[in-house]
Write a structure and sequence with these properties.
The chain has one domain: Arp2/3 complex 21 kDa subunit ARPC3 (Orthogonal Bundle). Helices cover about 75% and strands about 0% of the residues. With about 170 residues, the protein is mainly alpha-helical. The model has no long low-confidence stretch (mean pLDDT about 80).
Length: about 170
């Protein structure tokens, strides 16, 4: 049953990432909804399954963006592994949603830094590139993660995370 919830979460995140993120962009800085979804999945699924989900979502993102094939898959699987190691379901409960959001913000920094290093072409303007491609998107993703974790009612998180774990993914 969790597999279906995870698919829905990824589908919503893909829709937000490729349909809405340009509308909520500030000065060309977009939030990363896929990163938030992968971190939320890794909370319950743990390191192993979270890493698989991160790689799968990353390959989908790689195929949609046309960038370096495998870069998003590698980085999202790494972030999911770290999220599965650092966080737990309790992180999403009302008292801990700030902690979960902050951890997602830190993981967004890691995510954006690795993507920047994998995709950087030349050294001209590297400080501006770090600011625009790493730091500001991470802060904006942190903002959206805090909103999502705070707005989604605890009953929905419980419905997703209190069901029996799926053996497929």
């Amino acid at each position: 049953m969790n597999f279906i919830y995870y698919l829905i979460m990824v589908a919503v995140a893909l829709g937000l990432q490729h349909g809405v993120s340009d509308l909520v962009a500030i000065a060309g800085v977009n939030p990363d909804f896929l990163l938030i979804a992968v971190c939320a999945i890794a909370l319950y699924a743990g390191r192993g399954q979270g890493t698989i989900w991160g790689a799968a979502v990353g390959f989908i993102e790689d195929s949609l963006t046309g960038g370096l094939i495998g870069s998003h898959a590698f980085v999202l699987s790494l972030v999911a592994f770290i999220a599965g190691s650092m966080m737990s379901y309790r992180s999403l409960q009302s008292a801990y949603s700030l902690t979960a959001g902050l951890i997602v913000g830190l993981l967004a920094l890691v995510h954006n830094l690795f993507l920047y290093l994998l995709n950087v072409h030349g050294a001209a303007g590297w400080l501006t590139g770090l600011l625009m491609a790493v730091f500001l998107p991470a802060v904006y993703t942190l903002f959206w993660a805090l909103i999502i974790f705070a707005v989604v009612p605890e009953s929905i998180w419980e419905k997703i995370y209190k069901t029996e774990p799926s053996t497929l993914f």
